[in-house]
Amino acid sequence: MQIVELAIPLPRAEAASFERLLELHERQVARIAYRLLGRSDEAQDATQEVFLRLYRNLGALRSQSDVGAWLYRVTVNVCRDALRRRPPFLDLHRDFASASPTPEHLSEAEQQKRILADAIQQLTHQERECITLHDIEGLPTREVAAIVRCAEVTVRSHLSSGRAHLRDIILRRRP
Asked: What pLDDT, in 10s, does the model give residues 12-69?
């Protein structure tokens, strides 16, 4: 990813630290952004914004031991903002319909992945965030609760309702 040069360059040591953090976390942030937003162009913009915020706040984060958790939280917040800015009836399925070959050319595993990805986009944003962070990224409930800023019991509730919604969505798609 290309981060645009900012007017205030970082000192050499901080620039190296930023580059290392970018290398370590870029794919993870981009993957989460894509799963939360469902569109690659929006996910790229969100990823760029997350690392721009990291760049701006690098000095303040020195004392923070877990930059990864900070990045998760910022990624979720940036994606929430992007979802709020979306026009109300945006076609969330456009990426899948235009970029994929017909289902008969896909393997069964690829078809199942696409069906699941499509179903995840139909969840509420709270369910989608919790399922993405917990079930897909493998974060513990406590960490998910800290990232999305709610109680652990609320995360478990979103996970339960999200899984039930996924099951219903997927069962409705079957012939």
From this structure: 666 777 788 888 899 999 999 999 998 889 999 999 999 998 888 877 776 556 788 8
Provide CATH code, domain 11-90.
1.10.1740.10
Q: Which of 32, 47, 49, 41 is nearest to 148 (CA)?
A: 32
Q: Which of 33, 1, 20 is nearest to 61 (CA)?
A: 20
Q: Are 40 and 95 in contact (CB under 8 A)?
A: yes
pTM, 2 dp? 0.61
Distance, in Å, from the CA atom of 111 to the CA atom of 134, rounded to the nearest integer, reads 23
- Any idea what the Cα angle at residue 67 is, between residues 65 and 70, rounded to 5°? 115
Radius of gyration of the chain (CA): 18
CATH topology (fold) of 101-175 = Arc Repressor Mutant, subunit A (1.10.10)
Closest CA to 123 of 35, 48, 40: 35
